[in-house]
Amino acid sequence: MMELRILARIKSNMHNFTAAEQKVASYILANPEFIPTMTTKELASQAEASEASVVRFCKTIGVGSFKMMKVVLAKENTFSEENINNFSLLNKKDTPQSLFNKVTYFNKYALELSLNTLDKKDFSASIEKIKGAQKIAVFGVGGSFSPAVDAQYKFMRLGLNTVASSDYHYMVSYIGSMKEKDVLIAISTSGRTKEILQIASFAKEHGVTVIAITSLKKSPLYKMADIKLCFPDVEEEYRVGSIASRMAQLNIIDGLYLSVFHQIGNQIMESFNKSRNKVLQQRK
Question: Hey, where are the domains in the chain?
Fold first, then answer.
């Protein structure tokens, strides 16, 4: 990947910056992928500089404001080759604290980009389908299984008959008993996992609505799904593990959960309160 133009400009002007501005410049050059999701205050804190220094730095490099610099970085393809979630991480001299900071901004970046990748009409349609389903199946394997379990727990609290599994044979048996108004939520970052595609295909044969929670790219699952809830494609196929993609999946599930609760909450408050009181009794 070619170096971003704005980063090249910063490098070539390092000798023109004040000592405080050089701190800001050094942090941006080391962590360009996180800048679009940071505030002026956050950048100043991480760079060990003042907010005024951040503002002056942006004017010095000719972008006018920190907000504009974030836009420029995003437009110039924010992620560089050295993503924190690939194995180049082993060649870096990071501390535990710096890695925690990077993970935090990596997750934040994915969540904020999700505001642009999630289709509003599909999101609303998925809520209606979930509300009207007698049975909901949630299927995910590997790193996508934990969000599937989270979805099961949340929809179960709403009184919805929901089953989550990463077992292909179990899910085939469950889908075999589902009807046309029922829903399969298929969770996959790549959208290419063999088991996911086979389960989604089997569900469609039964007339079950397939809702895909997947990254925004033309994957087989994306093309197969009736409803597409997409998060940004921020992780590589060959990666250390699911980080930002899992966070984005959980965020979409939380959005679905709260949206359904908002619409049917008045009908289930009695059961909600009974469950809560039982849990409180257990804590005593």
Answer: 5-82, 116-283
